[in-house]
Amino acid sequence: MTKKQKKMLVRILVAAALMLILRFVPLPLSGIPMFLLWLIPYLIIGHDILRKAWKGILNRQVFDENFLMAVATLGALAIGLLKTGDYDEAVAVMLFYQIGELFQSYAVGKSRRNISELMDIRPDYANIEQDGELVRVDPDEVEIGTLITVKPGEKIPIDGIVEDGESSLNTSALTGESVPRDVRPGDEVISGCINMSGLLLIRTTKAFGESTVSKVLDLVENASSRKSRSENFIARFARYYTPVVVFSAAALALLPPLVRLVLGQAPDWGAWIYRALTFLVISCPCALVISIPLSFFAGIGGAGKAGILIKGSNYLEALANTGTVVFDKTGTLTMGVFDVVDIHHSELDRETMLEYAALAESASSHPIAVSIRKAWGKPIDMARVSKVEEIGGNGVVVEIDGKQVAAGNSRLMRHLGIEPIECHSAGTIVHMAIGSKYAGHIVISDVIKPDAVEAIAALKRTGVRSTVMLTGDGPSAAAQVAEVLGIDRVHSDLLPGDKVDKVEELLSGKKSGETLAFVGDGINDAPVLSRADLGIAMGAMGSDAAIEAADVVLMDDDPLKVSKAIRIARKCMRIVRENIVFALGVKLACLVLGALGIANMWLAVFADVGVMILAVLNAIRALFVQKL
Amino acid sequence: MKKTYKIEVDCANCANKMEDAARGTSGVKEVTVNFMTQKMIVDFAEGADAAAVMKNVLSACKKVEEDCEIYL
User: Fold this and answer.
1) Which one, of A528, A456, A293, A344, lies nearest residue B16 by Cα?
2) Nearest partner of A94 among A201, A12, A18, judged by Cα
């Protein structure tokens, strides 16, 4: 508890004790002296509310909850003084209101700290060697290229490459993945991981501010600043709700007695004013205003713990409404690791064919090119290659030992006036032409991720209506993969630029109110990630472009996380809706009962505080996402 | 120009009120108050002097919610 909260607790206890004494100890007093005695606990518990209400009036901020409470309790005191001689209600209302406020600030403060702690992966220091001794320095001060030492049990503070030492790393704070990762010299390591077993000497490759852990923290801290529609709705609602209730209360206090006067009945002012005051007590919108952002915050926190970073409440909302999921095949459903499976229709032997292909693709970093070079497996003599011409998305034409060699898809072959032989195997086909003669083709296949089939099935179970796969592969290969995975629709033969157009086309065809999510591996698909309703980047450990462009970032590349993210979002939105309906429902019921004179002020204040406590507890449920 | 300030505010509705008050201050283009992380993110208008604007923002916020604090 903070100092402020402790002080409030003391005030509550003192006022409660005084109230009990005055209520149950028979005192030989009545009238004004009794009133003055009751005023003591009332002022102890409520003096700040009265002051704030007064200041509110001076600053023309009339309709806030302080004003409501002040008017309601002062009114109750006045009724007590003039008519009934009971003052306990006024004090009790103030007392319970303050208890509610105290609970709210305590519970919210506590859950805020809990959630922040969960996500607190910020390293406090880095160890560097100075004059033969290990000293702790602020990670901000460590320059790129410095050698840092990470002992077992410590967090890696800055991204870098292992120079010396072997260990296993716990990456769960970043990925939600509990299996440790083994590292050895030469491996890249990411800040935020915990070194579990051995001493590591790491050469930093980034500044602290640019390191993964800083980026992730920045993202998480700003996440709840992007407000969702529900939050904006509540803020607007609160703005109108209070004045409306105040005016209704005034109407309730004035109109029925006046009508009764006109009808020739006793006006019964006391009863109607009392009902109006009850109305005011019920009117504080705090349960609603507090529980909605808390639910979102808890949902984002829970998702973060599972290795799913959601960049804002608005994206959480969009995620919950996902109707279509579009996958960019490579790197999301497949490993993005290619293997040369076969060579067809070639007059050359396998080795020569691969040698030409490897030389032709020697300058490219495309995964296909990498797999060909891997299959060739020998050092490449770049001097033999000249006149490299990349034909975007289709392949390359180069000169090797003075001979023109082309490697690419069938479009490239036709472009060169060579008729390729179509292949019926699944996978990516690299056609080769040497001189102007067709030389056969290499079949390269991507490996489907082990969880991909289950991931698509899980999406269907969560209620995603349609799954789409985009790929640059040929139609037959694409269809085959789609069938294995259970994907609904496939668009094949796409160049990188076509993917944006395809997504736009899908966007215009979807149902309104539904979200179209695009899942990419963060390589080359930043434009598509930002164009879709919701961009989900996969396996983003280290890829800055993906973290920037995506709305949701999955910290590892497990496709199952997509459906998990949707389920987390759904649970959170369900809680938000529950709280809205529950809080509004109870308030409306109390308002009606109050207007009819059935609910008294006690019930009103219990309803107010009770709803708030339940709504806050319900909101915290959004944090628990492990079993989803 | 965007800047983030640490704030202290007790209730969510008060945070909303602070947001409104800050938004109405001249020199502020857009502002978000994040009750959960207790932060105020202010996007200043072109050519505004952040320090001077924040002084006004603070007094505007104090007016609507006297218990709040902005750490400048």
Assistant:
1) A293
2) A12
Right CATH for A126-208 from 3.40.50.360, 1.10.150.530, 3.30.470.20, 2.70.150.10: 2.70.150.10
ipTM, interface predicted TM-score of the complex: 0.72
What 8-state DSSP symbol labels residue A80? I
Residue ranges in A475-559 assigned as alpha helix (H)? 475-485, 496-509, 526-531, 544-549
Q: To the nearest whole percent, how much of chain A has pLDDT over 90? A: 15
Structure tokens at A493: 């033969």
Max Cα-Cα span within chain B = 33
A480/A371 Cα distance (integer angstroms): 21
Pairwise CA distance, residues B19 & B23, whole Å = 6
Domain locations in chain A as residue ranges? 1-118, 126-208, 224-333+449-569+622-628, 335-447
| Spatial distance between the Cα atoms of A114 and A108, rounded to a whole number of angstroms | 10
| A328 labelled catalytic | yes
- Interface contact flag, B37 A116, Cβ < 8 Å: yes
pTM for the structure as a whole: 0.76
Mean pLDDT of the region A340-365 = 84
B6-56 residue pLDDT tens: 888 877 777 888 888 899 898 899 898 887 778 888 888 888 888 899 999
Beta-bridge partner residues of A129: A134
User: CB distance from A621 to chain B under 8 Å?
Assistant: no
Answer yes or no: do A61 and B35 touch at CB < 8 A. no
